[in-house]
Specification:
Blueprint (H helix, E strand, L loop, with lengths): L2 E4 L11 H4 L7 E2 L8 E3 L4 E6 L7 E2 L4 E5 L7 E9 L7 E5 L5 E4 L2 E9 L3 E5 L2 E5 L8 E10 L2 E13 L3 E4 L4 E5 L5 E3 L2 E4 L9 E6 L4 E3 L6 E3 L5 E6 L7 E5 L3 E5 L5 E9 L10 E2 L7 E3 L5 E3 L2 E7 L3 E6 L3 E4 L3 E13 L10 E5 L4 E5 L2 E3 L2 E3 L13 E4 L14 E10 L7 E7 L10 E9 L10 H25 L1
Parallel strand pairs: 4-14, 16-29, 31-40
Antiparallel strand pairs: 1-11, 2-3, 3-6, 5-12, 6-11, 7-10, 7-13, 8-12, 9-10, 13-14, 15-18, 15-28, 17-24, 18-23, 19-22, 19-25, 20-24, 21-22, 21-26, 23-27, 25-29, 30-32, 32-38, 33-37, 33-39, 34-38, 35-36, 39-40
Length: about 475
């Protein structure tokens, strides 16, 4: 498909494997046309195709060919065309048509019309898809060449060498959950992998750990490189993992949760490609991590995630009010919750909410709200049959304009008083997945219903309307009779 890009973009090799993340990209090719429009081809110089053990089952469906126009006084590039020749991949991959309807192909050559490309901007397309082939070995490679032309710019050419990667390294299918992790207290994980293929990881193996969402890696082995915020680590091991072998790190990797963090996820994957990523500039200064043999049981996944639950909570308390009025009245009652924290819920889908069961003798008729200028009747689910319970999720649009994270969130319920029920009261109960103080989750909604007013005709607006209509009719009749006499 076709995408708009910026010229500062440097697309990484896009595959689903760690190997793709570690691919080394060459600088973009550009036409030597200083007097006018300058085309730039921003494809990588190298790209890892697939794992050798995948063979014909491998698919590469996300390799873009971006073309940009450098900012200049020359203006836009007109009628840009890209010709991609995949002949050089014979024996390692089979190319199939891709694109967004603007490409044609003849055998292994794909021609795509990019159209006019704006000055200082760019276009990107995926002209071809790739299928793996059986019988390849790690290190087998081929080339893809490119030629970009425009009606008003010099041509640009480029080349990408695509290489078959080493064996797939599998990780634990299930890693469990770390619970009760106090922020700042060290937690550990011991990464493991299995090589179930017939190939040897002849260049060693690499481990990529990622700990976003308020987690931080605290181990600093010397054979690892880290991002500046310590949320990711890349570690290289010289061990040449042979066929049908399994390994784990000889010591666990430490990490912690940050203050106020409710939960997080640490993930890791292994690769037989050992080119260090450029975005991990910091080196560790502790003793190097080593590998030791282990059982391959359960090591069947491509990636392992460890979910972490901390001791931090997000404590909700109900905000309640009395349903007060006369029988027959429909009154507004403001109900909701107070967020005591201290943790902050990670997204609207985990915010939870509250449930209202109205007092006997009453009915919730609406929970009106406004969203982006539109008014609606139900910010919450409509009442269910039986007890008339109303469920309110405060992460929904109905609460967008009244929601106060870390504060008080209330909304007006329209409640009809149907009859007097002495001693009746409803309930309001708050909930979210991180509320660990159940003792303050429920409160009562009292009913204070007065008798309906006695019926007095002179107070009934319908009576007054009828009398007014009658008086108008009589007045009209008198006027008509007077006119006849005249």
């Amino acid at each position: 498909m076709r995408h708009r890009i910026r010229i500062t973009r440097r697309p990484a090799a896009l595959t689903a494997t760690l190997a793709a993340l570690l691919a080394t990209a060459s600088g973009p090719a550009a036409a030597d046309d200083t007097g006018g429009v300058l085309l730039k081809l921003e494809t990588p110089g190298t790209h890892l195709l697939y794992h050798a053990d995948e063979g014909a089952d491998a698919r590469v469906e996300d390799f873009p060919v971006p073309v940009a126009v450098a900012p200049s006084a020359g203006g836009d590039a007109r009628d840009v065309e890209v010709v991609v020749d995949t002949t050089g991949l014979k024996g390692v991959a089979v190319a199939e048509p891709g694109g967004a309807g603007n490409c044609v192909h003849k055998g292994p050559v794909f021609t795509c019309a990019y159209g006019d490309v704006q000055n200082g901007d760019g276009e990107s397309n995926i002209p071809f898809l790739l299928r793996g082939v059986d019988g390849v070995a790690p290190g087998d490679s081929g080339t893809v060449t490119y030629r970009v032309t425009a009606a008003n710019a010099s041509p640009v050419t480029g080349l990408t060498r695509m290489t078959v990667g080493g064996p797939t390294l599998h990780t634990p299918e299930q890693a469990g959950t770390v619970t009760g992790a106090a922020p700042g207290t060290p937690q550990t994980v011991t990464p493991a992998f299995a090589n179930r293929s017939r190939f040897t990881a002849s260049e060693g193996v690499a481990l990529l750990l990622t700990a976003p969402e308020g987690l931080r890696l605290t181990s600093r082995p010397a054979n690892c490189r880290f991002t500046t915020d310590s949320t990711s680590a890349w570690c290289r091991f010289a061990t040449e993992a042979g066929p049908d072998t399994a390994y784990r790190t000889s010591s666990p990797v430490r990490f912690t949760a940050e203050a106020g963090q409710l939960s997080g996820t640490l993930s890791y994957r292994w690769s037989a490609e050992t080119t260090a990523p450029a975005d991990h500039p910091e080196r560790g200064d502790e003793a190097p991590l080593k590998l030791t043999r282990t059982s391959a049981t359960g090591l069947t996944a491509d990636r392992t995630e460890v979910h972490v639950e901390t001791t931090v909570q997000a404590d909700y308390e109900p905000v309640t009010a009395t349903v007060r009025g006369r029988v027959g009245d429909t009154v507004t009652v403001r109900l909701g919750l107070r967020d005591h924290g201290p943790g902050r819920l990670p997204g609207t889908e985990t915010m939870g909410g509250f449930q209202v069961i109205p007092p006997d003798g009453t009915t919730v008729t609406s929970v009106p709200y406004s969203f982006e200028g539109d008014d609606s009747d139900w910010a919450c689910e409509r009442p269910r049959r039986g007890d008339g319970a109303v469920d309110c999720a405060i992460g929904d649009d109905g609460f967008y304009e009244v929601r106060h994270e870390g504060g008080t969130t209330v909304i007006g319920f329209r409640v009809r008083i149907d009859r007097r029920v002495p001693g009746a009261h409803g309930t309001i109960r708050t909930y979210n997945p991180y509320d660990r103080t159940p003792g303050n989750d429920t409160a009562t909604i009292p009913l204070a219903a007065s008798p309906a007013l006695p019926y007095r005709p002179y107070r009934d607006p319908l009576v007054w309307s009828a009398l007014g209509a009658g008086a108008a009719a009589v007045a009209g009749l008198v006027i008509r009779r007077r006119r006849r006499r005249v």
